[in-house]
Amino acid sequence: MPWRRRCPTPKAWAMLVIVLENAPPRLRGRLAVWLLEVRAGVYVGSYSRRVREHIWSQVEEGLEDGNAVMVWRSTAEAGYEFCTLGANRRMPADYDGVQLVSFHPEVVEKAP
Questions:
Q1: Are 42 and 68 in contact (CB under 8 A)?
Q2: What is the C-alpha separation between 59 and 23, in angstroms, rounded?
Q3: What is the pLDDT of residue 12?
Q4: Average confidence (pLDDT) per 10 residues, the chain, 112 residues
Q5: Nearest CA among 55, 63, 50 for reference residue 17
Q6: What is each CA distance from 42 to 3, 9, 12, 102, 111, in whole angstroms?
């Protein structure tokens, strides 16, 4: 059935998700060139490792005071890997080779 045929995706390509918070508009616009923005600050696509690394370098250069996380499909035990950038309460932690997320307590400034 011709309507069931799908465009083949190279096996080297993997699902990619990037989430931005407090990012400048120029970075959001740059990511929109490569990825589909499905919600404000949430970008998805399928790219090779090389392109994924190039996109992440663009995030590193343009993020300023915001924060970001990138998740992609991999052969890791969990089936995915991720990396983060910028200040956030959720930080990656490695436990016996498994990547998990740890929550840091909120910093509350005390009045003098």
A1: no
A2: 9
A3: 61
A4: 52 84 94 94 93 94 92 86 82 74 70 65
A5: 55
A6: 30, 22, 23, 21, 36
pLDDT for 11 equals: 57
Using CA atoms, how far apart are residues 103 and 64, in angstroms rounded to an integer?
A: 22
Q: Are 63 and 23 in contact (CB under 8 A)?
A: yes
Residue matched to tokens 């509350």: 108
Name which of 63, 92, 64, 88 is nearest 76 in CA terms: 92
Residue 2 DSSP label: G
Q: Report how far apart, in Å, the C-alpha atoms of 26 and of each of 12, 18, 33, 65 are.
A: 29, 15, 11, 14
Which pLDDT score, from 0 to 100, does residue 2 have? 54
pLDDT at 100: 74
